[in-house]
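Hello,

Following up on my earlier ticket. Below are the two sequence lines again, exactly as submitted.
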Amino acid sequence: MTTPDRCSGPLHLALLMLALSLLVPVPAAAYIDPLSGSIVLQVVAAGFLATAFTVKRFWRRAAGGIQRLRTRRRGR
Amino acid sequence: MERLGSSFRDPAGFLFRDGEVLLRQVNPEYADDYDLLMGSGLYDALTEGGMLVRHREVAPPFSGPGAGAAYRVLRPELVPFVSYPCEWCFAQLRDAALLTLRIQDAALDHGMTLKDASAFNVQFAGGAPVLIDTLSFERYRPGEPWIAYRQFCQHFLAPLLLMSTVDARLAGLARAHLDGIPLDLASRLLPRGSWLRPGVMLHVHLHARSLARHGDTALDASSRTLTVSLTALRGLVDSLRSTIQGLRWTPSRSEWSDYVGTRRYSAQAVDAKAALVRAYLASIDPAPRMVWDLGANTGEFSRVAAETGARVVAFDVDPAAVERNYLAAREETGTAILPLVLDLANPTPGLGWAGEERSSWMARGPADVVMALALLHHLAIGNNVPLDSVARLLAAAGRMLIIEWVPKEDEQVQRLLRSRRDVFPGYTREGFEAAFATRFRTLRADPIQGSGRWMYLMERAG
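Thanks for your patience. The regenerated structure is below:
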């Protein structure tokens, strides 16, 4: 069975490479915020993270449902 | 009243000692967040799950450094021994990382988020990690990114990756980098192939580049349009968890972790040694509450000490031995044993600001009892440490000492001397007794049946 992690791996990679190209320089400001890069990365990757998480959650629920159905059938 | 040297960065509050009692002041600016922590059910959920230390509020009137301004004063439950990430084995750091992510999930469930993800905020008690910083939470504001993301990656993910994919000895970087391993350094040290792992690519490689690129970027009011949805935030935590759960470290066969299986002395000698340790510990009055087992290996005799009801910190220089000891201790419900990595020839010094932010190994003592079993020859011969220097160190480390004398004729000592010249004419039983007599009073000395070794019970003089 293909896991959602494996399924989303190449897609994840391609999308994140695209994300990297979107990391456009922002004009420098008056103070240095060591967290800015961390925040920008989260914002850029948010769409992919949300999608991957939603797919994974859906897959887990679907797999759980199928498992329950099988168990019920075996019980009969 | 004494404010702790490690507690000065967080404006939410600080730790201080009132005599022997450790207290935590909550400052008024943290009042809303503290009330939300207590009122949202998050505190109950975390403490019932053993993820956060319990505390009780100290009823006013109270006093403290800046007490007039305190919103609350808390008395937290104490962990038996404070340890630092640079003293943890791989599995300890991994467990601490996964705990932090579980806590972040729970916080998000209750409308809060972790504002700190420092590995120093995690300690070990009963074989499991627990968060000790009650003030690490703040209200979650929809759209807000995880402010502690970088810190989490530096404190947990980077060292775990380096240990599992490059070399476990890179754990030592944690001592040099108290705020975690810089991501650009981790990115440079990791193999190129790690770019192909989505989690590593995102959380380390791209993260490092983004930090470098946007280090000078001010995120002002207009930047608040840069939001992260709650689903994305949960996805971030889930991605970090998947990445960390996928990390493994399988120690190679090391001299020490394999020692129990390959040692040369007889089962009779081992039983005799355990019996003596048991008898010596039982004879100590009052019963010891804290035992330090130095050179504990995988903790065979630490478990003998734990039978007395004492807490035992099992130190060893070999991360593989500590890993095995920790994995075993983790399975023992409510274990009294805390395995830690420590090189006695170079123990953890005072670290951080003014060298006081994190206490040295010695400053976290003394123990009631120090056990130094099959250790002396490694210090005296393996490290060229004079016997009186060993005595001085052990006298500072504990009130009572259980020490094993290993004669030069012993196979283990001969192994050490095999590739070097014997420049240790003073390494004799008489020389050992004379060196230790300057700092200890010998209460008992017994031969270990089945070996040429001797066991001593000593009490610190003066």
